[in-house]
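Worked example

This section walks through a single chain of length 382. The input is the sequence exactly as stored; nothing has been trimmed or padded.
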Amino acid sequence: MSNKTVLSLSALALAMASTSASALTINDLQDTKFTFGGYVKADLMFSNYGNGAPDSGNLSRNFYVPGTIYGVDGNAKEAIDMNVRESRFNFGTSTNVDGHEIKTLVEMDFLTTSDGNERVSNSYAPRLRHMFVSVDNWLVGQTWSTFQNPGALPEALDFVGAAEGTPFVRQTQIRYTNGGFQFAVENPEATITAQDGSRKVSGTGSYMPDFVARYNLEAGITKFTFAGLARQLSYKTSTMDESVFGYAVSATGVIQIRNDTLKFGVNYGDGAGRYIALNYANGAYQTTDGKLKSIKSVSEFVSYRHMWNEQWRSNITLSAFEADDTGIANANKKSMSGNVNLLYSPIKPLTVGAELFYAKNERENGTDGDLTRVIFSVKYAI
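Given that input, the structure is written out below as tokens.
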């Protein structure tokens, strides 16, 4: 281990320890840059669920999540939702201490919390998105998984925009960055499909974190990332003690074509589970004899942004996911979605737009669900 690495680790430990000491001086504050950001976003969504709309408060009424649109028998297909829950705020600091660059970030929004409703006050509690401290090459805390490239996400009015084709995970981790290389140990959590099709979540039975390695390659204005994931999926109870190895690989690209932008991603996994497609498929399933078997999957997305002029732009995005057969009738099998939008920014921080969105999901037994949605949004970036 180099002297620089040792100093970075020591500075990181000092920074974390100082958070509990509250011993800031005037000089400390003078050397610290404070930032505040985020955005206010209001959405109006007209949705049509092929099998009947989920009840108010269901996650898919806020944004598209594969696996949540199979519908509710007896409910009407149509639904209108208006909310500002995607709005967010963040607070960050940047300090130079004895030649070490120390940064922190805290970000929150209101999107998936259940403690609120649309009846009277729409009083939704904030939820944590990011909270981390970084010192030089080291980062500790919660942020985007190193397996994910958020810079490749398409511009969409739907919250994710390409849900099937992209890794999408935020979690606590320890990450080391050196040039284009990144290495991380991240929080493990296994999701298992039981024989009845239900999802079991296991955070016990193993001392092994998830391991991620990534390489970021830039060639002028063109950017590529390549990432690999290795993990152990365990499910242990008083009557069962099973584990299986899982892995995944991912590649993304952001290519400038004059004023336009092409973004794409492709993923293959054998036990990727919750890392891909918002956990549409689990990492493993229980066989009829109680063993664990990892689930293979492949997914991809492509998105193209065309600039009509400095104020008007459009994006078209296609996304798809497919998992191997598990022999379990209710297990998620295939998912696809597509969207096209028209966005207008009369001034740079303000965007007004409309988007047409369609998605279809299919289980192994052939049952399916579909969603057609029109979204109108106003967003002001702070």
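What to look for: The first helix runs from residue 3 to 18.
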